[in-house]
Design goal:
Largest sheet: 8 strands, mixed
Distance between the termini: 12 Å
Subunit structure: Homotetramer.
Pathway: Aromatic compound metabolism; 3-phenylpropanoate degradation
Bound molecules: 3-[2,3-bis(oxidanyl)phenyl]propanoic acid, fe (ii) ion
CATH topology: Protocatechuate 4,5-dioxygenase, Chain B
Cofactor: Fe(2+)
Shape: globular
Radius of gyration: 18 Å
Family: Belongs to the LigB/MhpB extradiol dioxygenase family.
Strand order of the largest sheet: 6-3-8-2-9-1-11-10
Number of domains: 1
Helix content: 25-40%
Function: Catalyzes the non-heme iron(II)-dependent oxidative cleavage of 2,3-dihydroxyphenylpropionic acid and 2,3-dihydroxicinnamic acid into 2-hydroxy-6-ketononadienedioate and 2-hydroxy-6-ketononatrienedioate, respectively.
Structural class: alpha/beta
Number of strands: 11
Length: about 325
Amino acid sequence: MTAAAVGLSHSPLIGRNDPAPDVLAAVEDAVETARSFVRAFDPDLVVLYAPDHYNGFFYKEMPPFCLATEANAVGDFGSAAGALSVDTDAARSLARGVLDRGVDLTVSARMTVDHGFVQPLEVLFGGIDKVPVVPVFVNGVATPLGPVSRIRALGTAIGEAAAVLDRRVLFLGSGGLSHDPPVPVLDGAPPRVADALIEGHPPTPEQRARGEERVIQAGRDYAAGSTRMVPINPAWDNLVLDTLESGRLTDVDAWTVEWMGAEGGGSAHEVRTWIAAFASLAATGSYRTTSRFYAPIPEWIAGFAVTTAEQEPNR
Ligand SMILES: O=C(O)CCc1cccc(O)c1O
Ligand SMILES: [Fe+2]
């Protein structure tokens, strides 16, 4: 097989609360570089690691990670709704391979996903049904979160399982880096909020619109500096990117949940998707980063990064 990896931040505020034109142009440049990279690599399978924001996974059962053999997008924040083009056979084969390697994977035969999965597919492929995909949910918001070493183990096991497929596999991580959007928290939540987080009642259109407006307003406040949210942390974000670029992925085993949250805010744990993607690529051999972009973008509530990596030649 051949393999590559892309890490891409997401934000539902893109196009809704945009930064200055020069920042926007730099992002568009970096994204175009990633698109060219993906076009040249021409993957015939995408393993997509992404988080959820209480649209598909709830506290009634909250797995640390979960692989889908079928998936439907809810269409939050104007993202595409409907079925993802899941490669069910590849998904089943990867699931078996991961379980065989001793990682206790949860499998969903019909996963519900949100903008975390949809946005990278739209941005890089122009839609949610353009390329065979294996969606892998990685919990990055719902505490308690387990050790990052287990996410690296998941990524490694999926990379090893993918390596026996005769495919061109792109490992794609969606989310991060440091950011602290107003995602609800179960601990201390009022009973109605707690019930929603546990049961996952689908919101009415009015409730969804109110929630989305709250996030958009938070982006405006974050950019204006008038907020108690944890600020974007470029130093920490670059430490994360340096670690992924260096290939010293075992470093992440020492990263504690508390440290990550303190440095990068409540949603910094979305970088777990990047760690999984790069661990998968690393499991297929040594790799090198071919592009790397970073900008703190408070308007989007995102330490925003795009990275592409390929297998080292002459392996
Ligand atoms: O849907 C939500 O509740 C949170 C939305 C959200 C906002 C900013 C950055 C993100 O990465 C993100 O996911
Ligand atoms: Fe997110």
